[in-house]
Structure formats: C-alpha cells, structure tokens
Amino acid sequence: MVADADAAWNKQFQKIVIKADSLSQMKKFYTAFYHTMIAPSIFNDVNGEYWGTDKKVHKNEGFNNVTTFSLWDTYRSNNPLSTIIHPEHVNDMINSMLAIYQQQGSLPVWHLMANETNCMVGYSAVPVVADALLKGYKGFDANLAYEAMKTTAMGDDRGIKYVKKYGYIPADSSRESVSMGLEYAIDDWSLAQVAKKLGKTEDYAYFSKRGAYYKNYYDAKAGFMRGRLSQDVWRTPYSPFISIHETGDFTEGNGWQYTFLVPQDVEGLIDMLGGVDKFNAKLDSLFIAQGDMGKFKSPDVSGLIGQYAHGNEPSHPMSYYYAYSGKPWKTAEKVRFILDDFYTDKPDGIIGNEDVGQMSAWYVLSAVGFYPVNPANGLYVFGSPVVNEATLQLQGNKKFHVVVKNNGPKNKYIQAMTLNGANYTKTYIKHTDVMQGGELVITMGDKPGAVWGVGEANKAVSVLK
To answer: How far is it, in rounded angstroms, from Cα 402 to Cα 197?
Structure first.
C-alpha cells in the first residue's frame, strides 16, 4: 500500500519536473505542488454511489464525484493550474459541481461532503466552470454548465437581489457587502465571456455590465472602495486600514486590499484610479502603506508588504498588475521577494492559511514564471521565475519546456524571451500557446531589460487585451 501510494504521487509529481539551484528550492516547489493536489477528493463508493446535497443517494455516470470545494480560494490560480496539467480532474470537478447544481438549485459556494456551507462571499464556482468552458474542455454538458452559472447568478439570496436592483449591495443590508459585490463582479465578467462564446448576445451585454459594477463601490473622494448605503451616501466612519472580521464591509481585509480586487478588468481599474501614472503611484502605495487595522482585524490578514497581504487570497494577483501599467519590472521585484521570503522549507513555511492549495498554487505557477491574474481569460502574466528549468506534462503527451538562463538571486528581471525559437516580447502568454507544447526560453539579468524595462512605461494600458 505504501509503495502504491508512493508510485501514485510520483506519477503526479512528474507532471511538472523542475531543475533548481538548491535542495531548499526543490523542497519548496514539490511541497507546494503536493499541497495543490490534496483536494478536491473523491466522494463516492466503489460502485459510484454517493450522498448528495439533497440528502439522497446518487450515482455518478462517467466521472468521479469529488468534494471539498474551497472555491473562494482556489478559483484564483489552483483551478487554472489544473486546466494545464490535470485535464481528467477538471472534468471530474465540473461534473461534480453540475451535479450539486441539480441537487440544490445553484452551483456550490464552499461544498463539503454533501453539505453546502455557504462559507465566503461570491459564487466562485462560476469562474471555474467558465474557465474550463472557455479553454475548450468538453468532458461535461456545456448547456447545463451555462444554465447552472446563469441560474446561480440570477438568484436572490446572499445579496444578489440588490446587485440586480441597484448595481451594488447596500452596506446595511449584508455584512461584507463590498467584498461580496467585488467577487460577484469577477464572477459575472466570467459568465459574460461564456455567453459571448455561446452567441448569447443579450446575456453577454447584461453580465458584462454587471462585471463592471465594481465601480459602484469606489468613492472617488476617498480614493478607495468602501461600503455604500445608497446612491449618494457612504458608510461612516471610514478608514481604508480598518478590518473588522466577519461583520464589517470587507471579507478578511480592508479598503486598501479590496480597492485593487478587479483582476477581471485591470485596464478599467487603471482608468478608474485616474490613469497609468496615478494607478502606479496608488499601487506603489499599497506595498508601503502602514496603518492600524484595528482590534477586530481578521487573523487571516498576514504576510504583509505594506497593506498587500499575501497570506490571504484577495491580494494574490496584485503584484502582477504592474504588467498592465507599463512597469513589469516592478512585478518582477515583488514576485521574487514573495517567492524567496514568504515561502520556506520549514514546517511553518507558508505565510498564511494554505486554503486547500491556493497559497501553494500561487507559488508553483509563479516559480515557473507566470500567473493567471484574470481567472478566466486564458492569459498568464510573466513575473520572475525562480526555477532554472521546468517541463510541464500536457494532454496528448505534449510537453511545455521552460528554460531560464542566467538566473540567480540578483538576476530577477526578464531580459529577453523566445517561444519555439522566435523572439517573444509580450508580458503574457496564452493558455493555447502553452497547451500546444514547445519551448519558452527566458533570459534573466540584474537590471530591468530593454523589452520588459523602462521602455515599456508609456505603452498602452491595453497590453493584455
């Protein structure tokens, strides 16, 4: 049994084979990689029968029923990681979610062993299902998947009725209203992209509008997202530093962190904050601002760089935002610091709650060199790889080989890249390019390079569109 378990895990570990400078880096990477695969786990008997959310016995057909969906955490990068290297598991997860939808009338929020816990805000199954559909996964019923996403998004509970009525959730109607509304905007944007792909023009327009509702939580005078009581009244008193655990306007965070939770539309966020220069100044401030979060702050707000909190999931895409605003070398600096300082090979080697693999998924992808800022647009943004080489095992026995030349502690900046032998100057790579297989060669240096350096500062904000 032990030998079988070892063989099974070693087979999974072969899906990403790396070369690194030290045993410590190898330990960090493969410990993280292991953590990304501990859930969701199979939840059915050998004959396929399982206990459903409706408290009835069901039998799966053609898939493993799985459970432990920590979706508020994992949709950000652990689920996208699975779309690259775990195709069979992606189909199991989506089919299990659709079965849950049929049993309880909505997609799972935080599903655990036939129970819907409704833990955390948003309907974060939506970007996971959308991402699989948009990436061409076909191991599930696409029409049922769309029905499940739309039905979930058009409900009335958990503040959704206010989103439909006002375009925002009044702060006196729901706890954590700002975080909830911002997560819904991410989810709705993702749903809109599926509607577009399926030719559902009216739905695309409607959910695209809802995907931009993040703007309704932004107080231009304060310069931050904050709780809104009505169209022209904000909740007072207000401080962007204050975090009130579970009963405030933010989920495990504060106004600083949530002002930047717009991964589905970073270009729109840049415009909302006043353009590239003001955005960069504000983003710089996120990483240096100091202030008291108050006596009721969430213990989950950890791994702080200024007010950036790497120990909690909402902050995870933000170090990569500089790639959208003409300063990708600043992304390299932040990402490399986090990789080196916030993950270690000691027993307490993660700066925050693992949250069913999401903290480690950030490390695995970032260590290889790129990260899915937007959870459902099929693009991965470059950062600062720490491995010297990585081979990703893909569907169809294809491989994507990443070679990092001249890497080292000081050589954190990308100087040049080639993709299958041709010069590559984009600050992102498409999922479709990765899945075709091939070789990406990244050359590093100790100063910002001519391509990913200061010369990029005046380029258009829409670089990732």
So the answer is: 31
